[in-house]
Design goal:
The protein is of the alpha+beta class. It has nine helices and 13 strands. The protein starts with a helix and ends with a helix. It is found in: Membrane.
């Protein structure tokens, strides 16, 4: 065989070996990270607690990082927030020597492949077991076996809301996060901090997050202790919106109805005005009913205020009808009524009746005196009720 042919075959063989070597080295299945993951998960049993000493408990630290308050629903007695829930524990079966694996010190593993604490929101108002946390979030594993898992999402919890001081109310809601199946002797979940993390918190348009607290709780069930974490959120409503569209119109309407006594009885608009105001209060009561829960334990002070003012407006309407009826009465005024009207009552309400007019007083004059009396009485009543109600509400707010 010619020498030049041997030389060509040799070059071709060397090129082939180089190609095979490069292809083999570039194969992703041979990367140090893939080899490490395959090694760690080989014969890994995610149903077993990842601890060598089976008689010891696995310590799990828990914290909650609230992003925002999504909804506070008084009618259904529930609160919804968006939050991250960082957890950390040590998996003794996922530790490795970083020097033996290309200096890799951390990897990301899907939670479907490894053991994670069986945690639930115990007082949830939605799904009891949040499968989305397992489906969409991975875990970060370090070479020491330390695992960090940070699921996030919407948390809806049942929350008994006290609407007594609406719209100047405070609310206290609680979230109870528990390790569902293992007892404290197997998995010991503890809070990392005494307060909720608010670094990412975005202020709500309706609520102010006043304070938070976190504490460890152990629930005894059938003689076994289960570890839970109680998260308390104290909220204060921002009342400006409801004050502008609800409270101020109610107060104004309560005094507008009293002005009807200044309208001349001949105009015929007094009764219709009183009826309109009464219907307006009925509308406000319907709106309030749509906002608030059907809870008979403690009625909202604002609802009581509207009902009391409506009662005054009902009596005001009756008095208006009485004055209009007297205005058109053709019967003579009795001497007793003349003496009462021209004497003590006229003096008290500052209505001047001349001596010449006193002998010929008619029902129109009686109506004028009664109008003045009703204005004073209902103004005082509405003013006292308004002051007392809002004093109670604002004192509670302080």
């Amino acid at each position: 065989m010619p020498v030049h042919n041997i030389h060509m075959y040799t070059l071709a063989f060397v090129a082939y070996l180089s190609f095979v070597r490069v292809s083999h080295s570039e194969n992703p299945l041979n990367s140090p990270e893939v080899k490490l993951i395959n090694k760690l998960l080989l014969n890994y049993e995610k149903r077993a607690r990842p601890i060598i000493n089976v008689s010891a408990a696995i310590p799990v630290t828990y914290n909650i990082d609230i992003v925002g308050i999504q909804e506070v629903d008084p009618k259904n007695q529930r609160m919804s927030i968006f939050a991250w829930q960082p957890m950390q524990w040590k998996d003794e079966f996922l530790a490795w020597n970083s020097e033996e694996h290309g200096g890799i010190k951390r990897i990301i593993l899907p939670t479907a492949s490894i053991w994670i604490p069986d945690f639930v929101l115990q007082n949830t108002a939605d799904k009891f077991y949040n499968e989305e946390s397992l489906k969409y979030f991975n875990a970060e594993v370090s070479h020491t076996g330390n695992v960090i898992f940070t699921p996030g999402g919407k948390l809806s919890t049942s929350c008994p809301l006290n609407m007594k001081y609406f719209p100047f109310d405070y609310q206290a809601c609680k979230l109870l996060v528990s390790v569902w199946a293992p007892s404290c002797a197997e998995v010991k979940m503890e809070a990392l901090s005494k307060k909720v993390a608010t670094d990412r918190y975005e202020e709500s348009a309706e609520w102010t997050l006043v304070s938070t607290s976190i504490k460890n709780v152990q629930i005894l069930y059938l003689g076994v202790k289960y570890c839970s974490i109680e998260i308390n959120l104290n909220l204060q409503r921002k009342p400006l919106y409801f004050v502008l569209i609800f409270v101020i119109p109610c107060i104004l309407l309560s005094f507008v109805s009293i002005v009807s006594f200044t309208i001349p009885a001949e105009g015929g608009e007094r009764i219709s005005m009183s009826m309109t105001v009464l219907l307006s209060f009925s509308f406000f009561l319907i709106v309030l009913n749509d906002l608030l829960p059907k809870n008979s334990d403690e009625a909202p002070i604002l609802a009581i205020y509207i009902v009391v003012v409506m009662a005054f407006m009902g009596m005001s309407l009756i008095c208006t009808i009485l004055v209009v009826r007297l205005h058109y009465s053709s019967k003579p005024v009795s001497p007793l009524i003349k003496r009462v009207i021209t004497g003590y009552l006229a003096f008290c309400v500052k209505v001047k009746i001349s001596p010449e007019k006193a002998t010929g007083i008619d029902w129109k004059d009686v109506g004028k005196v009664l109008d003045r009396i009703f204005i004073i009485i209902f103004s005082i009543c509405v003013l006292i009720v308004t002051i007392v109600v809002f004093f109670l509400i604002l004192t509670h707010r302080k």
